[in-house]
Amino acid sequence: MATPDRLLDSDTMFAQAIWLAAICLEAFLVFRLWRARQFSAYPLFFSYLSFVLLQDVLRYLVAHYYAFAYPGVYWSTEFLGVFAGCGVALEFYWDALAQLAGVAKLARFVLLLAFSLTFGKVLFTAMQGAHGWSVLLIVQLERDMRFVQTVAILCLLFLALRYLIPIGRNLRGIILGYGLFLGINIVNLTYLGRFGGDVQLVASWIQASAYFVALCVWTVFLWSYSPQPAVAGNPLDYDYSQIVDETQERLARTRSEVRGTLHTR
Q1: Is residue 216 part of a domain?
Q2: pTM of the model
């Protein structure tokens, strides 16, 4: 949770307290999801939460017993955490649009494409630079990936409101907590990338607090299992099928016109 510089300084006691509280809450939430068998309903979110728990425990132990290795461990796990978060965003579409197979498939493809292009852009920048991967590039990658995830959540909410797609209590809580964390984190990473070490202490407090708030939201909304309500009709699938049918019809008409032209000649 805490950033590497000035980690054990007395001024970071607040971040340290939030860090320990987050580890305890993560462990409790993982245990409760496992005990209630909810991990099978949200496997990617459960995997993400388990990863972050192991990440935080590892960071805490390294910070206090092998402080010299902490910066490397921090940024390595931060890099892996970017892709773990992408899985959570994919699961939002997987669950919310589960009864709308055609649209869900298209949405996941677009989202994967956006993630791939974002990573490709940062990778190209790293290959062009003299130092390869750097802390600044990891910050940029995380910020850009978080931004894509935020846009994906907003698009999902727009679809839900536009086509009256119901979202269950559990999924609603996961989206709310993760959305709050993403929004705050994007602003945080933007200032961290711009000002660097001058704002790392404040950035540490903000990130730790935002994630702890997300954990509290998840604990409240995931306390008991609430299945996804059924969709009343499937207007999105109808629109998707209609587009496919119209496209096929136009292609068939075009082929007929081309053949007719060739025969005429």
Answers
A1: yes
A2: 0.77
